[in-house]
Amino acid sequence: WDLDKEGGKADSSVEEKTAEREGSEILEPYVGMEFESEDDAKKYYIEYARRIGFMVRIMQRRRSGIDGRTLARRLGCNKQGFSPNHKGTLGQEKKPRPSAREGCKATILVKMEKTGKWVVTRFEKEHNHPLMITANGFNTTGDKDKKIEELTMELAHQEQLCSAYREKLFAFINNVEKQTEELSSKIEVIVDNVRKLEAERQRFTHRSAGSLGI
User: Where is the signal peptide, in residue numbers (predicted)?
Assistant: First the structure.
């Protein structure tokens, strides 16, 4: 599964760009933009979205097959995709519910580099729907959207905690395995020494018996 193949056309510019909304200047994402952590990248994009006028959906991620760490994460507009049509038990289509999804392609992809930095590798700026902007450059979301934003931030925080706990667990397991190997080596040395002493004792017993003519 390649996250790079999703999310539409990428913005290949690596120059620092800004977006102006009602006199408010906001740093716009660009390919090559760096963050110290995945959490920092999420917080930045959520704040950028809040200032521009859309909500963020936490989307796919790619994990390491070795330790389960997140290696790449895709974030996008909450209007991405389309809601499926649901049918009743008799095959009749139910009355469609209002959907917030409009097939928007706005997205950003960040990946963790070997240096540990998180880098933007894909950015799709354009939305296919109006953005909610007020005179001061902030969106006019209601209580529901505000709650979604709060929960999104909390989810990002909890994922960061889970990642930290996972790393501690793997470190503990590795330490236990190392100590087990060291203990096994020491036991082997002790057993080998006991065998040598037993062999020496038997040889000494045989020599003593021979010298006494027994």
Answer: none
Tell me the H-state helices in the chain.
Answer: 38-52, 143-211
CA 31 to chain CA centroid, Å, is 19
Radius of gyration of the chain (CA): 31
Which is nearest to 55 in space by CA: 136, 152, 134, 154? Answer: 152
The CA distance from 55 to 132, in Å, is 10
Strand ranges, E, within the chain = 17-21, 24-28, 34-35, 56-63, 70-77, 107-112, 118-124
Give 22-53 pLDDT, tens digit per residue: 444 568 889 999 999 999 999 998 888 888 88
Read off the tokens for 200: 């020496």
For the stretch 190-202, what's the b/e string if a residue is b when 16 or more beta carbons lie within 10 angstroms of its beta carbon? Answer: eeeeeeeeeeeee
Q: What's the pTM?
A: 0.48
- What gap in Å lies between CA 9 and CA 49, rounded to an integer? 19
Pairwise CA distance, residues 152 & 163, whole Å: 17
φ, ψ dihedrals at 63, nearest 5°:
-110, 160
Give dist(CA 179, CA 132) in Å, integer. Answer: 58
